[in-house]
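User: Can you predict the 3D structure for this chain?
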Amino acid sequence: MIGRSLDCNLTIEDPLVSREHARIVIDESGERVEDMGSRNGVRVNGVQIKGPTPLSDGDRVRIGTQDFVFCRVDLAGKGHSKTTGVLRLCSKCHLPYPRESVSCPNCEATDQPDEETLSGSFGNESQTSWSVQLLVEALERALSLGRTQDAERIVRRATAQVEELILSGGTVDPKALAALATQAVATTAASNDPTWILWVFDVYRRSDRVPPVELVDRLGEAAGVHAGVLRAALDGLLSQLRASARGASPADVAALARLEGIRRLFEDQATPISEATGEWPRPS
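Assistant: Here is the predicted structure, written as structure tokens:
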């Protein structure tokens, strides 16, 4: 059971989620999701359901402002009968945080969501940040289990959501983008496919943002294997950031210095450039 009530197996304090919003059923006949008469409904892969709806591995289930990814992780796993977690949706920045926290760690607000379920939705940027954060958690889980194909499918969906927001003129939350970029780098390391590091370089170039130092360190660890393919994309990012570096913060200056260090590493390796276009294959 999923809803706002503490009696649910998964409790989410989101004002768009009903007390008992939806139910996931897994039995001998398969897996399905049911709307428990919620005010705002349940969507599977973007389509609002009318009754019990079968679920397949990789399906997206939207409840309130959240997108869940249904994954087969442990086919022989045991069911859980008690509450597995309680999240609160910040009424100010609309990002999730643990219920036991006194204030939102993202914006430090202490306001609580209204007790009654609200109708409607938050802005597109807040919805995207929340959806990306959930997909990042699923991506991290897939990578920890060695499910590389699942990870690539999830990172493709998450990056596509970010691209849709950018194309619509929206602004991507920096923390959500950094979290996704970090897992995208990990996906490249797991799959030996440089596509996702190319995307990281490209999205930061187009956003005219300096990646956080922690992310740059991850990039340095993984990028050397694909230096020939990545060199043009890194050059594009550095060219953009150098042009707008005036007045940069100390953290940005440190991150830029480390990016320059990665570029020098590429030069030292003298890897022939092949398959390099300077562009990343956009997720379908």
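The helical segments are 124-144, 148-167, 174-191, 195-207, 213-223, 227-243, 250-269. The longest strand covers residues 22-27.
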